[in-house]
From TrEMBL:
<keyword id="KW-0949">S-adenosyl-L-methionine</keyword>
<comment type="similarity">
    <text>Belongs to the RNA methyltransferase TrmD family.</text>
</comment>
<dbReference type="InterPro" id="IPR029028">
    <property type="entry name" value="Alpha/beta_knot_MTases"/>
</dbReference>
<keyword id="KW-0963">Cytoplasm</keyword>
<feature type="binding site">
    <location>
        <position position="112"/>
    </location>
    <ligand>
        <name>S-adenosyl-L-methionine</name>
    </ligand>
</feature>
<comment type="subunit">
    <text>Homodimer.</text>
</comment>
<keyword id="KW-0489">Methyltransferase</keyword>
<dbReference type="InterPro" id="IPR029026">
    <property type="entry name" value="tRNA_m1G_MTases_N"/>
</dbReference>
<dbReference type="InterPro" id="IPR002649">
    <property type="entry name" value="tRNA_m1G_MeTrfase_TrmD"/>
</dbReference>
<keyword id="KW-0808">Transferase</keyword>
<dbReference type="GO" id="GO:0052906">
    <property type="term" value="F:tRNA (guanine(37)-N1)-methyltransferase activity"/>
</dbReference>
<dbReference type="GO" id="GO:0005829">
    <property type="term" value="C:cytosol"/>
</dbReference>
<feature type="binding site">
    <location>
        <begin position="132"/>
        <end position="137"/>
    </location>
    <ligand>
        <name>S-adenosyl-L-methionine</name>
    </ligand>
</feature>
<dbReference type="InterPro" id="IPR016009">
    <property type="entry name" value="tRNA_MeTrfase_TRMD/TRM10"/>
</dbReference>
<dbReference type="InterPro" id="IPR023148">
    <property type="entry name" value="tRNA_m1G_MeTrfase_C_sf"/>
</dbReference>
<keyword id="KW-0819">tRNA processing</keyword>
<comment type="function">
    <text>Specifically methylates guanosine-37 in various tRNAs.</text>
</comment>
Amino acid sequence: MRIDILTVLPELLESPFNYSILKRAQDKGLAEIHVHNLRDWSTDKHRRVDDYAFSKGAGMVMMIEPIEKAINELKSQREYDEIIFTSPDGKRFEQNDANQLSLKKNIIILCGHYKGVDQRVRDNLITREISVGDFVLTGGELAAAIISDAVVRLIPGVLSDETSALTDSFQDGLLSPPVYTRPADYNGWKVPDVLLSGNDQLIEDWKMEQAYQRTKELRPDLLKKHDDE
């Protein structure tokens, strides 16, 4: 998989992609992540990529020209399955979206910034708009890092145990059950007996019950969706 990220602040993305799972995926040749400075496509002598809104409202707006030039240049080199725009009013990013995107070959992520982007970009160049939550960030760089991390970790071979990602929260519509490790007794705080029983079926039944109860308590909205399905 190849992910190309267009941003006005490429420095913000240097760290996330150079450590941990994302770094490992790139070292293994399972993913390529390229961060591009959108200002490289600006025709302004000051490399500006924003201008005032015609509506005269507060805040600056990302201009269409450098964005179109950047996307067209990338598209001239390869085909892209998705061109994603990170925006507070996009579709909320969920695990199923990460699952779908992990099957793609090439993706562009345009990081939102300032007051937003010229609507003509969204109307004519973008194939999917994504929000990471009902809040506003300074820019879409952190959202792009979140999307990239959630997607890349699902690519076969990235995690040492591929089944790990398939048992994460949200994969089956429920939150994950609690987990424990050694020692079995720490200061009187004990691991549930069932996990020490060696009975695989009892353990699986316990995990499912715990997942259901945790979801009911913490995220009842997920439980309703799970029951409907």
